[in-house]
Amino acid sequence: MIKLNSEYKTFGGKLGFYSHFSSSCNSEMRFAVYQPPQATSQNVPVLYWLSGLTCTEENFMIKAGAQKYAAEHGLLLVAPDTSPRNTGILGEDESWDFGTGAGFYVDATEIPWSSHYKMYSYVVEELPNVIAENFPVNLDKQSIFGHSMGGHGALICAMRNPEKYKSVSAFAPVVAPMQCPWGEKALSGYLGDNKDTWSNYDATELVKKIGFHSPILIDQGTADSFFQQKQLLPELFEKACAQVKQPLNLRYQEGYDHSYYFIASFMEDHIHHHAIFLN
Amino acid sequence: MIKLNSEYKTFGGKLGFYSHFSSSCNSEMRFAVYQPPQATSQNVPVLYWLSGLTCTEENFMIKAGAQKYAAEHGLLLVAPDTSPRNTGILGEDESWDFGTGAGFYVDATEIPWSSHYKMYSYVVEELPNVIAENFPVNLDKQSIFGHSMGGHGALICAMRNPEKYKSVSAFAPVVAPMQCPWGEKALSGYLGDNKDTWSNYDATELVKKIGFHSPILIDQGTADSFFQQKQLLPELFEKACAQVKQPLNLRYQEGYDHSYYFIASFMEDHIHHHAIFLN
Q1: Each residue of A125-156: pLDDT tens digit?
Q2: How far apart are CA A65 and CA A61, in angstroms?
Q3: Which of B80, B178, B183, B252 could form an S-S bond across to B31 if both were Cys, CB 3.0 to 4.6 Å?
Q4: What's the CATH architecture for B2-278?
Q5: Burial B89-117 (b: 16+ CB within 10 A, else e)
Q6: What's the whole-model pTM score?
Q7: For the complex shown, is ipTM > 0.90?
Q8: Cα–Cα distance, A22 to A205 (Å, whole number)
Q9: Does B165 touch chain A (CB under 8 A)?
Q10: What is the role of this chain (chains A, B) (predicted)?
């Protein structure tokens, strides 16, 4: 059972904000869905967006300007929240880069986080089923993209589940969480000290082990302060892709920062990239 | 002197958020400017956006998706805040539809508002000069549009200053403030009881007296609750335009509401409308 909290007509389609009880996360979760006009007459492909630190299910739908292109290509957009909220875990709201708004798309194994923070299973398993039960979609055609922490999420979900996703792309993704402060904090907090487990959630490790069946598109702004602070490390991912001959289109965008103003500027290209594999 | 508070590259151009001391409003005012890529090599036309109740200079730039089309057509976008803020006037923050965030684009004559609330002069006189002094623009090519209270503002600014503006359009504008609750509250509060003064700020009255030299484009969503509550009254403006043979393209957009999701859906059409008269 999902609950519709608000709904808007936009670009000829329908944008809804929903909540439901997630069995993976054992708590309420929220997500947004944009149904393109085509969805009134046929089952359409699904494109998932995973957001970055501190975001909710709203940011992407308000700021990215994606609906126009989803409507043009007939894709249903799904944007989940970035973590469970109000779980009652002590300290969940203490950091902006851990806990609430910072689920990092992993299945936590460490107490107390393991009782609720199962964002990997939520995104890969539960949410697609919820979407299929409630919206006119074709689950044989799914793709995934995201921003920053959500770019990390998109890459790991896609590489670990190549049969589920036709294509993947990212804006300013955290591609080597084992080697940056955000990632070290999140992976140690959610997964404990065993770095073998961490590597299942590190795109740079995964591409060397698994790779992906279609070319990966990544945009990175050169004026992005988190890029400059070595939280993102696209150069490591690029090197790993080169090692294993993984097709990668990494574009450094001169002068762009980490904001949705950057994302919106290249949204058309990303949705076009996915539409090629989905339509 | 204007102060740059933040700046972002977007769609190949530059978005800045500014503050300055306004002599019209005798207080700090804020505005946002999007400089299209063309502005690095030539003076470009200016398109002003006036926002609705409760908005700041940010809403439009975050939500409307206008930068893409401004970049395509080489237009500089300017979005001022909707009122002075923190003026110290007693009760300025008491209502969401009067005072802060609700300047209604009039020059207040009533004490205490008359000491700061001069949004009409600010938009029509002071702001264009500030823009001309600080940005590469061609003030012979200006147009104006807006939403709700700002649609009202755009229409009255354009009709009263046909030599300044090449074109005007609006989303869900308040077109007959003398005949709706929002307008009655604002006009009586800012201008007192003399309804002759009010009529200078009422688009439906002005079009009968003055008209405008180019066709007016208006989009109105049919699921807009403020339309249903008779705050907007496009039918009165349509009737007045018909009386005086003012060319009007009033489009009722089925199922759309009052939000920026509606605005974004038709932004391309509006910017195209202005580009025809500006380029």
Answers
A1: 999 999 999 999 999 999 999 999 999 999 99
A2: 7
A3: B80
A4: 3-Layer(aba) Sandwich (3.40)
A5: beebeeeebbbbbbbbbbbbeeeebeebb
A6: 0.97
A7: yes
A8: 29
A9: no
A10: Serine hydrolase involved in the detoxification of formaldehyde.
